[in-house]
Structures are given as structure tokens and as C-alpha cells.
Amino acid sequence: MQKRIVLPLVAALVAFGALFASCTSPVSEGPAPESSLFADLDAGIAFWLERTTTDPADFVAFNKLGNLYYQRARLTSDIADYERAGAAYQSAVDVHPATFVDGLLGLGFVATARHEFESAIDLAEQVLAADPGEEAALAIRGDALVALGEYEAAMSDYETLADRTPGLASHARIAILLAMLGNPESAAASWAAALADTNAGTADRAWALAEHGNFQFAIGRLAEARASHAAALELVTGYLPAELGLADVRAAKGDLERAILTYEDAVRRAPSPETALKLGDLLVAAGREDEATEQYELVEAFAALFEASGIRTELPVIHYYADHGRPNDAVAMARELYEARPGIYSADALAWALHQSGKPAEAAVYAKEALRFDTPDGALYFRAGVILDAAGDPARAEIALARALELNPAFSPLHAAEAQALLAELARVEAAR
């Protein structure tokens, strides 16, 4: 049996509150970036597609085809490739005379990418029942558990994975979760171990470098973030997560125009609710409100396209509704998300929706829950500070706002200045008492 440890989309993106930030809708306008890696993937897909057409019972060919579609989807963020990968894996499972572990693993990774977390866990446990030593099943289950807010159980799977197969795939997962659980020093050590793995493939290493850049950005190390994203792009030209990471660094340093250009290109190449929302915020920060409105209006449209493809993108839609005149819809969606996946980012989304709907006391409960691990994320602390101030707790609000700016004084081109202003006002009021 072929062992397959494929790096996750989920663990990293959920951990930092993104929503598979670069998933493409079926109407993507841009071509895949030119790269020998992409050319090799395309050639491999053509070869194995021909094999499956010639012999519809060739489960090995279907599985290899699924692997290639999945790898290309991770690099191009094309929803259609996730669908193709899932169909190929399902064909492999269907034509195999007995339980085909590799096909089930592929279906598990695709289920995780599509936010079908309970299904991913079920598939992983089917594999573990057949082969208790299958490390990839631990990766799938751990990634899904992170998304569902089951952090302790996820860490147990990741640590078992690292004991059995130390390297980039296992240590990167642990690093992401450690940061989420408020231990950036240990996370940094795990990132060092992950990136020291010289046996990792090109796509996996590019993914890890981009996620490492996001981690460095979150804790305010902009030069390190820039270097990590640049290294990812040296490996895979046009790798969108790294390009967006560099754009975030540029925005933090005041270069809004270049950041906007990158996000505009991302919306053309890989339209998603997340990128449209972030582009809108950048445009507002640059004083281009009319253009921002156009981007904000795309958030819901892109989300509908994702949903039509079987992928739910709740978080950016909740924040869009909360901030753009539909707070009651935001609350309803956030409550449903929190009940299904009670993690810190679901709590944060529900807190902000409740705040925007005029319920500061209830919002404060969930805002405190979102901060329970001291996750290094300035946006979490900013929203909590605003909520706690509205709920009549200026002391805690001041602590939260100070923490947001301590982590990264430029955590958001739109909200960092607002955090500074509110913090100064709270200090002025306190001094006047």
C-alpha cells in the first residue's frame, strides 16, 4: 500500500481564521501560473486519465489521477479539481474488489478540503480500522478535529503522527495548532523542525513556507514573513497563498496600492468570498470606497458559487453580513456554525455578529471564549476589545486592544488605526477619572 502524507489545507487555514482563502469558484477567469511543476501535473493527469478511459477497472490509475488532481487543486485552488479528485478516488474505491485504503485516504483529504469534517473523520477511522498504522489517516482526522474545535484530540493525533513519521507534514501541523493554542515559542520550534525536512516535496514545502510566513506575520515579524513567502514563490511561481501573504506584508508597511493589485489579481484568478472581503477592506483603507462596495457585493455571490459546489464558506459571509447591514442574518449563521464547530473562530464570529446586532453583553461572553488560548491573532483581540468596551468593561477592552497592537501594530490596514484610537480614548477616560 502506498503511504501518502499530504499536507493539509484545513489545519493551517482554519487555525488562522481563513476560509481556504484561495479556493477558486467554477468561474475562475485566470489560468494556472506557468511552472514546470504545473506542466508535470498536467502531463501526469493526461496520462492517467487516458489509462482510466482505456481500462475503467484500473483502480491504481484512478487513484494516481486523484492524487494529481488533488495536488493541482492545492496549488491552483481550483474547486473543480477537488471535485475531479473526489470522483477519481471514488472510482478507485468502487472498482477495487475490497476496501482500498489509498482511495479512502484520498476521499478523506478531499472531504476535509470541502469542509465535510464529519465525513473526513469517518473515512479516516475506516482506514485506521483496516490499518492502524496508517499515518495519513491520523493527519486527516487531526485536521478535521481542528476544524471542529476538538483541539486536544487533534493534538493527540498530530503527536502520534510526529512520533511515527517526523518531518514537515507532522511538525507543520503541530506548529499551526501550537500557535492557535497560544504557544508561539513552541510553534516556532516546530516550524524550524518542519522546514528542516529536506525530503519534503516541492508543493508541500511551498505550502509550509507560506503558512510559516502567515505565522510570522501574526506575531509581527514582517521581515521574516516576507522572506518565507518569497521562498515559497521561488519554489512555485505564482503560488497564490504566498502572493497574498506578501500582499499582506506590503499593506502592513503602507504599500496599499501593490497589495490591492495582488488581491485584484487573486479575485480574477481564484474568486472567493475571503479574497473579495479582504480586497474590499484594502480599498476602504486606501479611500476607494466605491470600488470597495463593488468587491463587498461579490462576497455573497462567490459564497453561493462555493455552496453550489458543495463547499460552505461561513466565516467571511458572517463578517460581511455583520458589517454591511444584515446583522440578524449574521447572528443566525454564526449560531449554526458555532453549534456545529465550536472553535475559537466560530466563537469570534458569533461574538461580532451579536455585537453588530446590538447585544453587547451576550457578545462579550463569546468574545472572551475566542480569546481563551491567547491565540496570536490581532483581529481576534481587536474585535474583542471593541465588544468589551461596548459591554461596559473598559479595563478588559484596553487589555485586548493593547494585545492586538503588541502582536502586530499593523495587523490590519483597516482596523489597526481604529484599535489605536480606541485604546487612546480608553486611556484618556481612565486618566480623567
Give a structural overview:
This protein has 433 residues and is mainly alpha-helical. The protein folds into two domains: 10-312, Tetratricopeptide repeat domain (Serine Threonine Protein Phosphatase 5, Tetratricopeptide repeat); 315-432, Tetratricopeptide repeat domain (Serine Threonine Protein Phosphatase 5, Tetratricopeptide repeat, Alpha Horseshoe), CATH 1.25.40. Helices cover 74% and strands 0% of the residues. The protein has 23 helices and no strands. It has helices spanning 10-15, 36-54, 59-76, 79-95, 101-113, 117-130, 135-147, 151-164, 168-180, 184-195, 202-218, 222-235, 240-252, 256-269, 273-285, 289-308, 314-323, 327-340, 344-356, 360-370, 378-390, 394-407, 416-432. α9 packs antiparallel against α10, α12 packs antiparallel against α13 (240-252) and α20 packs antiparallel against α21 (378-390). It is globular. The chain starts with 9 loop residues before the first helix and ends with a helix. The model is unreliable at 1-34 (pLDDT under 50).
Concise overview:
The protein has 433 residues and is mainly α. Helix content is 74%, strand content 0%.
What characteristics describe this protein?
433 residues; mainly alpha; Serine Threonine Protein Phosphatase 5, Tetratricopeptide repeat; 2 domains; 23 helices; 0% strand; globular; disordered N terminus
